[in-house]
C-alpha cells in the first residue's frame, strides 16, 4: 500500500518546558491540530491461484490415433479450470470502532507518524520508507499461435480429401523427426558449422513439428488468474470458505455448481485477556495485542492449511505511554499493519 508521511512537529517552542502528547479516541476537529489514525482489524485472506484452460480441437483430430497414435483426443472444444496454489494468511482493514487522535499542545514535540493510505498506523519516529519505485514487471509474454498451413507442401494442400491430407501431414511430421535425429547424430547431409547454427536448425524443426502435431492433438490456451477471498474471523467449524468449479472457476458460496472448500477457526485464548471493567482509559498511543487462532482449510478430501494465525479480534488493545514520545524522545516503533500489533520498539 502507498504510505503517507505526516509530520507533527510544527509547534516547537524555545523553552525548556514541554507538555505531554495528548491522545484521545475519535476524530477531532475544530482548532485542534494533530493527526487521526486508526487501528486495523484482521480478515483472513485466502489467495487462490488458478488457470483457465481453453482447448480447441485440431482439424485432423479424428485421425490422431490412426496416424500419430495419439489416443483420447477430443473432437469437442472445452474450457476447464485447475487450482495451482492456495495460500492462507491475514490482512488488515481499518477498524472504524478504534479511531484515535493525537493532539499537539503548545511546547509539545510530537512524534513523526507514518500511516498507510487507509489511515492505519505504520510506524512512529522511524526513517522514511524506501520510496524508490519498484521496477515495472515485464509484461507476460503470451505464446504466439503458429499457423501450421505455412509449413504445408503443395502436395498436402492439393490433397483430394481431408483423410489424405491428414496422412500426408503425418508423413511430414515423421520426416521432421528423422531430420532432427540425423542432426543430433551428426549424420545429416548438410550439417551445421557450429553449435549455434545447430540450435537454430533444431528450433525451427521443433516449431514445424509442434505446429503440425497440433493439427491432430489440438491446442490449449492457458490463462492464469488469482482470486482473493476475505473472511471476517469468528469461531466456526467447517463453514464454506469458497466454492470451485472445474468449468467456471471460483464461484459464489451458494452456487452448487462448485465443490465446497471448508474453513474452521478456533480461538486459542492466547494471550489471556482480562475482563473489561469499563474503567480502562486512553493513556498513550494505542496498539493491538492480537490473539491466536487455529485455522484449517480443507477441500477435495485434502487438508490444504492447518496452522495458527494472529487475529486482532481475539486480542486486546494496550497503550504506549505518551511520555515516551515527548521532547528529545528517541523511541522508534514499528507496527504490523495487518494486526496493529507491535513489531519492534527501539530506544536509540
Structure in words:
The chain is of the alpha+beta class and 348 residues long. 16% of the residues lie in helices and 42% in strands. The chain contains 4 helices and 14 strands. The protein has helices at residues 64-68, 154-157, 162-185, 195-217; strands at 3-6, 22-25, 34-56, 78-103, 113-116, 121-124, 219-231, 236-245, 249-251, 259-267, 285-299, 302-320, 331-335, 342-347. The strands form 3 sheets. The chain has a 5-stranded antiparallel β-sheet with strand order 1-5-6-13-14, with no helix packed on it. The protein is elongated. It starts with a strand and ends with a strand. Mean pLDDT is 83; it is low at 1-20.
Keywords:
5-stranded antiparallel sheet; alpha+beta; 348 residues; 4 helices; 16% helix; disordered N terminus
Short description:
With 348 residues, the protein is of the alpha+beta class.
Helical proportion, percent range: 10-25%
Element-by-element helix/strand order? EEEHEEEHHHEEEEEEEE
Please state the structural category: alpha+beta
Low-pLDDT stretches are 1-20
Provide the residue-averaged pLDDT.
83
Specify the overall morphology. Answer: elongated
Q: Give the termini distance in whole angstroms.
A: 28 Å
β-strand percent reads 35-45%
| Radius of gyration over C-alpha positions, nearest whole angstrom | 32 Å
Number of helices: 4
Q: What spatial order of strands do you see in the largest sheet?
A: 1-5-6-13-14
Query: How many DSSP E strands?
Result: 14
Major beta sheet summary: 5 strands, antiparallel
